[in-house]
Amino acid sequence: MTMTIQTMTSKTMAIKTMNTLNYHALGRSLLAVALLFISIFAHADQLTASVDRNEISIQETFTLTIAADSRASSAPDFSPLKNDFEILSSNQSQFTSITNSGTEFKKVWQLTLAPKRVGKLLIPSFNIDNSVSDAIEINVSQQRKTQANGDESVRVNIEASKNDVYVQEQILVTIKLISQVNLSQAEMQPLEIKNAVLIPLSEKPKQYVSNINGKQHLILESNYALFPQESGELIIPSTIYSVVPNVERDLWNDPFGRNRANILRLPTEEQRINVKPVPAEAAGKTWLPASNVTLHETWSSSLDHLKMGEPVTRTITITAEGLTGGQITPLPTNIMDGLTFYPDQPQNSDNKTAKGIEGRRVETIAIIPNHGGEFTLPEVSIDWWDVNSQSMKTATLPEKKITVLGDAAPTANTTQTISASASSNASEEQNAKAEVVTKVSPWLWASTVLFALISIVLSVYVFHLKACLKQLQAEQEKANAITSEKEKHIWDLLKHSATNRNASDLRKHILSWAKFHWPEATIHSLDDVAKLAGKLELTESLKKLDALLYSNHPDDNWAAQEILNLLNECRKERNIKRTTVKLKSLYNN
Fold first, then answer.
1. SS3 at position 220
2. Residues 270 and 318 grouped into a single domain
3. What percent of the chain has pLDDT over 90?
4. How large is the average pLDDT for residues 252-278?
5. How far apart are CA 496 and CA 515, in angstroms?
6. Neighbouring-strand partners of residue 300
7. Nearest to residue 249, comparing CAs of 234, 260, 235?
């Protein structure tokens, strides 16, 4: 009996021991699963950024890698990179990896980047689902001399027509890509120059073949007209040509032609130009630095047989070689007794030639004689600076004599003679009428009565028509007053934001006012406003305002008051044009 009890006790202890071991095994399994989930969630919120190299030259590229949890709801915003880097390629992948620390589920973005300039450039932080990566600093050095002197099969060259100019004088800039091999791709980084206006002379580079040292070379030539806006040293920064030589593709390693390792990045040399202020000889005169300036005029009709009260149109065209149309100053306004002048809105245009920009300004003036006689219009002249002879010159139109048919302005004696003659003629006419009346037949009386009735009916109709026209005019004036009040309100908001130097509000109010000022135009940006205004200074000021708003490194050097003054000029010109159109329609009626 005792042995049976001992046996049962041993079995019970064995069972307890096995249960204990099972519980420990289960606990270890649960712990492993828990650690696995903890590992997964520990990595879920991580966002990492890394580069393959931190030290590169301006010619080289590098790879940026962004890694995030696979459950990330969005992709990183790579647009801030474009401030300092070119994005040459981008691809996304997803993978799962199992390590001792657990299982990772990752989304990975890889970008091939090329620097736009030399210096310390910053890859910004990225944000996905409240996870933020670290920013990375990239040191970009100048072009390596061994690379610059090694391979001359493809190279770039930049030339400036002048290295010593006056402010606002035209400089021709030529950038050439010279290659001994065929190219499958060639793209130049946009050229941006501070304190200057840069105008491409063609939509795309000229392409031709040239024989250099007995070898055929492919040439891609880009030409620009450059106008410095401030005196001092003007820097044309280095720009980069990215080219891909046309070589056979490696079908094994690169079956889809996506390998960008054969991209060549060729920087141009930085250019420095001395910009001088306006010379003393031009002080107090219009400043137009050009190669040539001419004046030309046309008239809508002959000047020998003009009629009193009928308008004649004079069109004066100013052409300047080496200036834009917006740089040409307006002609002085004419004032002359006996003639009324109504100037139209001037028209500016630019013609792109091999010599650069040829600007043109067309001014149209309606002239209405108030009485007959002969009039002499004064000489029209415009001063300009000859950049070739380095001296002031003057372009002129000679004085013009016009003859107007009709009564001349009466003098005192002439008035008395006319009055006496009119009295004598009136007396004779009354005597003649008395004699005629005695001989009038009865049917003429009936015709006279009928004519009188018709005249009364017509008079009533004319009176009614005048009343309707007067009502329409009153309604139009009321509508114009409301429109003017709205325009004034928008303008006051614009002035307020300019006075307070609030760039964001100023841009918004400029667009609102421009849509009101040019209702027939489509306006979405400050560039649209600049094109409609046609003023070079306003174009530059609005560019600075946009740069201030959208740049990561805003510059406080912008002139709010200058923008306000230039827009006010547009406002005044618009009012003059509306008055001219109204007067013309009055004379046409």
1. strand
2. no
3. 24
4. 73
5. 18
6. none
7. 260
Contacts of 432 (CB under 8 A, 6+ apart): none
Residues 292 and 272 in one domain: no
| Residue 422: pLDDT over 80 | no
Q: What share of the chain is helix, strand, coil (3-state, %, to 5)?
A: 35, 35, 30
d(C-alpha 185, C-alpha 245), whole Å: 7
Torsion of CA 568, 574, 580, 582, to 10 degrees: -120
Enter the tokens of residue 26.
Answer: 């289960």
User: Among 381, 361, 165, which residue's Cα sits nearest to residue 276?
Assistant: 165
Sole residue written with tokens 């054969």 = 262
* Encoded amino acid at 82, one letter: K
Q: What is the DSSP letter of 338?
A: T
Q: Are 173 and 192 in contact (CB under 8 A)?
A: no
- Which structural domain, as residue segments, surrounds residue 164? 151-249+260-276
> Is the model's pLDDT at 399 over the cut of 60?
yes
Q: What is the DSSP string of 120-156?
A: EEEEPP-EETTEEPPPEEEEEEPPPHHHHHH--SEEE
Residue 432 belongs to a domain: no
* Residue 222 within any structural domain of the chain: yes
Same domain membership, residue 177 and residue 101: no
Percent of the chain predicted with pLDDT > 70: 75
pLDDT in tens, 275-290: 999 999 988 888 999 9
CA distances from 99 to 30, 71, 105, 340 (A): 19, 19, 11, 92
| Same domain, yes or no: 129 and 169 | no
Find the DSSP H helices in 234-380: none
Distance CA 218, CA 156 (A): 12
Within-domain flag for 521: yes
How many domains, the chain? 4
The structure tokens listed for 576 are 């003059």
Question: Residue 452: which region, alpha, beta or left (left: phi > 0; alpha: psi -120 to 50)?
Answer: alpha
* CATH value at residue 354: 2.60.40
As a whole number of angstroms, the distance between CA 158 and CA 456 comes to: 85
- Could you give the CA distance from residue 558 to residue 422 in angstroms, rounded to a whole number? 71
**Is 578 found in the same domain as 495?**
yes
Cross-strand partners of 374: 403
pLDDT in tens, 351-378: 998 889 999 999 999 999 988 888 999 9
**β partners of residue 356:** 353
pTM: 0.51
For residues 122 and 159, membership in a common domain is answered with: no
Whether 415 maps to a domain, the answer reads: no
Token code pair at residue 97: 């990896």
Give me the CATH number covering residue 242. 2.60.40.680
Task: Give the Cα separation of 178 and 211 in Å (integer).
Answer: 11
Do 110 and 182 belong to one domain? Answer: no
- Residue 201, number of CB atoms within 10 A of its CB: 18
In this predicted model, which residue has the larger pLDDT, 177 or 215?
A: 177
Q: How far is Cα 566 from Cα 532, in angstroms, rounded to an integer?
A: 13
Of 309, 314, 300, 366, residue with least CA distance to 338: 309
